[in-house]
Design a protein that fits this description.
This protein has about 280 residues and is mainly alpha-helical. The chain contains 14 helices and no strands. The radius of gyration is 19 Å and the shape is globular.
Length: about 280
């Protein structure tokens, strides 16, 4: 299996909305974004699958070395060994992806090893920037842009995606003792953390989640407002994913914010339909 084939398999098996957003890209850009997505999946899996924090931190340190090795091929002892980093070697050169941003994604993943609560949105936003906003910036670089304002669009869109994930996964995350809803907002709406962990639905919780959905939608609006007309075509993959994620938000709201005991999702066929429709009409 070649490095590109490994990345393709990693992406397709995930079932993520991200995968559907770049199905219609030309091959060079599709291979590039697939490699970036596979990298994000690999480092995220380290945090999700390692029960020992020290082992997880060691693995993330190894990934840091792999990323550094991409930029010093032939010099470093820890030159790319993993299929994902091997696939990224031509990508970072062709699309001029900054090493600092790839490392910042790992910074975000490492936050999950030590921080399970966020006192306020300012701190949560830093986490969202690292694990998703930066991915948006790198993706925009791969898709191509002419106007620097597109980077504002890309980061806001990445944060919107992460906020959507947080809303969808409230119950699942809380059962793993991870609470991504800001604690000051839980207090404002009088929702104890224990209600999340024990899936106690209440009117207060529903109102809290409506507030979270409204904030996510505001980030989508800010992203779209920042996207220059001349870059709309090249940035279609992000707009495809936004259509899928906004549909997901709509489903969560229509279902009464029942995110404590269930994980709302769209079928692969529905995602494919939304992706195709958005692509051809953008």
């Amino acid at each position: 299996m070649t490095p590109d084939e490994y990345c393709q398999e990693k992406a397709s098996k995930s079932g993520s909305s991200f995968y559907y957003s770049f199905l219609f890209l030309p091959p060079p850009r599709r291979r590039a974004i697939t490699a970036l997505y596979a990298f994000c999946r690999e480092v995220d899996d380290v945090v999700d699958e390692c029960s020992d924090v020290n082992v997880a931190r060691t693995k993330l340190t190894w990934w840091r070395g792999q990323i550094a090795g991409i930029y010093d091929v032939g010099i470093r002892v820890d030159a790319p060994q993993h299929p994902v980093t091997q696939a990224l070697v031509p990508v970072v050169k062709a699309f001029e992806l900054p090493q600092e941003q790839l490392q910042e994604i790992i910074d975000g993943m490492e936050m999950d090893l030590t921080q399970r609560r966020y006192p306020d949105f300012a701190q949560l936003k830093e986490y969202c920037h690292r694990v998703a906003g930066v991915v948006g910036l790198l993706s925009a670089q791969i898709f191509g842009y002419r106007n620097a304002a597109t980077l504002t669009y890309a980061e806001n869109l990445g944060i919107a995606f992460q906020l959507t994930n947080i809303i969808r996964d409230v119950g699942e995350d809380s059962r793993r003792d991870r609470v991504y809803l800001p604690l000051d907002e839980l207090m404002r709406y009088k929702v104890p953390v224990t209600d999340l962990m024990h899936a106690r639905m209440s009117e207060n919780f529903r109102q809290l989640m409506e507030f979270q959905v409204a904030r996510a939608r505001a980030y989508y609006r800010d992203a779209f407002a920042a996207l220059p007309a001349e870059d709309r075509k090249t940035q279609r993959p992000g707009l495809v994913m936004a259509s899928i994620y906004q549909t997901l938000l709509g489903e969560i709201g229509a279902g009464g914010m029942q995110v404590l005991m269930q994980r709302t999702s769209l079928t692969p066929l529905r995602k494919l339909w939304i992706a195709w429709k958005t692509w051809v009409t953008t």
